[in-house]
Each structure stands twice: as C-alpha cells, then as structure tokens.
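User: Some background: our group keeps a shared notebook of sequences we're curious about, and every so often someone picks one and asks for a predicted structure to add to the entry. Today it's my turn. The entry only has the sequence so far, pasted here. Could you supply the structure so I can complete it?
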Amino acid sequence: MITVEKFEKECQDINQQLSTDRYQIHRDSTGFAFNATLVRVNILNNTNERYILKLCETIEVPKYYACLSIHHKPGSSTASTPTTEKTTLAPKLSDFATAFAAFENAFCVRTRIPWCAREEQPRVGLEGAFAYVRPKPGEPVGLTLRDVCNMVGWS
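Assistant: Of course. Here's the predicted structure to add to the notebook entry:
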C-alpha cells in the first residue's frame, strides 16, 4: 500500500523531470505501479548502478502518457562521484502504446528479457545485464502475458 506522502513525492519527482504538475505513476488494473527498478552489481569494482523506469500518466482525463528513466551510475576511475542521468524516453502527451513501447524496450535492452517474461527472470541478472527488482511479497506484480492471454481467451 502506498502512503499519501510517498505518492506525493513520486508525483513531485515526475513533474519536476517533465516540467509540469499534471503527471503521476501509471498503475494497471491490479494496482501495479509502473516504477521498475533495475540493478547491476560489479563485484570486482565494488560498484552498483540502478536504472529506474517510470511509465507516467496525466492526472486528468483524457489520459496522456510519458516514459522516463533515471540512471544512477557509479563513479569511475576518473570521476569518483556517482552521477545521475535523467532521460525522457517517450515525451509527455504520448499515447499509451507509444509510452508503453518505450518502457518495454528500455526494460528489454537493459535486462535482455522481455517485459512480459519478467516474472520468469532469474533472481540475478544475465552477465552484464541489469536485474529486475521484483515487487515485495504481497504487492501487485502487474499483468503478465499469461494474464492478458487468459483475458482475451487465448489459453
């Protein structure tokens, strides 16, 4: 369950990145928040990096969408200070298909697995790839490909 304070902080962060005050994290019919965290650990260099994907929607109807990423990079040998890179993958006022395609593509490029197969992903990432941090037990995991197929009668 998300607290009001956490929800307001999420909205504030999104709206700062989009330079607007009209977006929030998209949640599907299961209550799953499209705010995916991906991690990659380098044991040899004792570093880790995080890549956060956010699928956002407007607060008002009709709904418009955007897709954002935040990449927290570890320091390098030349720059000991970690860096954060924020990128808009699908601009504000995108339709759902465009924003969701950007979300799915970024997830697949970083993890090397498709979004619809995220629950079958091994707990550790493939070599060089990011690993998806699954929701905590009891929290919504979102619709899977199997769920969608069952909904449309493709068992």
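Suggested note for the entry: Residues 96-111 form the longest helix (16 residues). The first strand starts at residue 23 and ends at 25.
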